[in-house]
Amino acid sequence: MTWIYLVIAGIFEVVWSTTMKLSQGFTKIGWVIATIIGMIASFAGLIIATKHLPIGIAYPVWTGIGAVGSVLVGSFLFHDQMNMMTWIFVILLIVSIIGIKITAGH
């Protein structure tokens, strides 16, 4: 269950980074509220996960999910342009997140 909380926290990391972009510099109050809610949910999930996982495992997975998710949202929702090398590094990040999970022993 701890890993589920961590994954959900990572997803909310993507939510708040996306809604922050949509807030247009915190000028759209609805998106600002969504950003704050996403941040609270993301941090809450990380806090719960670190009760049972070492911070050295939980934090990189949490940030990795947020990073990969934000790259995907940027690419597909905001049409950010990324070259092939960037995508290779995103794939390496995914492999790293999976590797941490597999080798963590928790």
UniProtKB/TrEMBL annotation:
Keywords: Cell membrane, Membrane, Transmembrane, Transmembrane helix, Transport. It comes from Lactobacillus paragasseri. The keyword Repressor does not apply. The chain crosses the membrane at residues 29-50, 57-78, 84-104. The keyword Hydrolase does not apply. It is found in: Cell membrane. Belongs to the drug/metabolite transporter (DMT) superfamily. Small multidrug resistance (SMR) (TC 2.A.7.1) family. GO terms for cellular component: plasma membrane. InterPro entries: EmrE-like (IPR037185), Small_drug/metabolite_transptr (IPR000390), Small_multidrug_res (IPR045324). It is a multi-pass membrane protein. This is Multidrug efflux SMR transporter. One of its GO terms (molecular function) is transmembrane transporter activity. The lineage of its organism: Bacteria, Bacillati, Bacillota, Bacilli, Lactobacillales. PANTHER family: GUANIDINIUM EXPORTER (PTHR30561:SF0), SMR FAMILY PROTON-DEPENDENT DRUG EFFLUX TRANSPORTER SUGE (PTHR30561).
